[in-house]
């Protein structure tokens, strides 16, 4: 604030200096003061008919005028250049001339002001004539640098006086205005590290109210995120407890088995438990990675080709269940997105279809681009549908939550696949919703991603 006020005063000083200098130079260019002085002095000499008396009056005026010009108290602390006076009769005879002229003649036009070069310097000459006398006044022209210095010297004291007078109320207002912010800072510093409760609102100050509201919004999102992470940690620990118990039990059986048959059985069950724990760990890590903003920039990709590659990777497992797979997509479809997030979406939907789809059933993938009113691509739609057992109506509202699995399912799983799909779609700014299955059976998942 102090720097802003100083800058404002500097700008005001520059503007006022330019304005006053322009007025000063305009006044000087008209030379109204010198011309008016010549007229006044000539009116005083008009009543004198004798040349000796006129010379005495002119000499007295010369002495008084130059004495005044040399006195700083009479000229705002400045010493002005000497004023030369020359008096001639109407016939042109010299009556009086200032000593500084030294025989030089002042030339001018009656009732006007002209410039005259004397000894290489510019002088302003004012001339006024009547029926008896011709009076001429001359003084050295004022340099532009000198005029500018005078203007600044006149203006600077006023600005120096006005600066503290203007700064004091601004400083008081800023100090008073920052007190609510200081109190808010004190409240934050006194808080415990684990205290994420909203800050109390103070309705008296609109500016601080917006800061409190924004900060409370940050606290709300932080509480929600920490809550999700704690819930995820608890659920993951609960889900891992079963396979870890199986691993411990089967490892004991494997060591204590009396024959090869029991060892092979224990080894198979141990392998299944390890695979389940590994799958759960990978999905937990994938979900945690999607909770963070993407580190890499989105790229323009051929989504149709990317979809075909992902489908090819999952085809062996789908074909092992004798599923009829179809893909309806354009030959090429360019879109700007994060490839890893899109792979998480489609990969988990295909894994979900492989696990819960009908043996020997159908799986249909549809990839298309919706065009908006302006004729430009508006959104990308990916639909994965099957004709399997589907999802009961009572369970559909919670199917995208973490660690939620349908009741009565015999297939091993952690219940994180669809949660990963929803989080990945959210990362890409899109959404996922349930859609109709095939032939009135099964279920579909429609993923919509904005342009």
Descriptive overview:
- By secondary structure, this protein is of the alpha+beta class.
- It folds into three domains: 31-142, Beta-Lactamase, CATH 3.30.450; 206-289, Helix Hairpins (Orthogonal Bundle), CATH 1.10.287; 296-450, 2-Layer Sandwich (Heat Shock Protein 90).
- Helix content is 53%, strand content 18%.
- It contains nine helices and twelve strands.
- The strands form three sheets. A five-stranded antiparallel sheet has the order 2-1-5-4-3. A five-stranded mixed sheet has the order 7-9-10-12-11, with helices on one face. A two-stranded antiparallel ribbon has the order 6-8.
- Strand 9 and strand 10 form a beta hairpin.
Key phrases:
5-stranded mixed sheet; Beta-Lactamase; Helix Hairpins; 451 residues; 5-stranded antiparallel sheet
**Structural class, judged by helices and strands?**
alpha+beta
Provide the CATH superfamily of the largest domain: Histidine kinase-like ATPase, C-terminal domain
Oligomer: single chain
Give me the count of strands.
12
Strand order of the largest sheet: 2-1-5-4-3
- How can the largest sheet be summarized? 5 strands, antiparallel
Taken in chain order, the helices and strands follow as HHHEEEEEHHHEHEEHEEHEE
Helix content: 40-55%
- Could you say what the CATH architecture of the largest domain is? 2-Layer Sandwich
State Rg: 49 Å
Number of domains: 3
Shape: rod-shaped
Proportion of strand residues: 15-25%
| CATH class descriptor name of the largest domain | Alpha Beta
Number of helical stretches of at least 4 residues: 9
What would the average pLDDT be, to the nearest integer?
Answer: 83
Alpha-carbon distance between the two ends: 44 Å
Low-confidence stretches: none
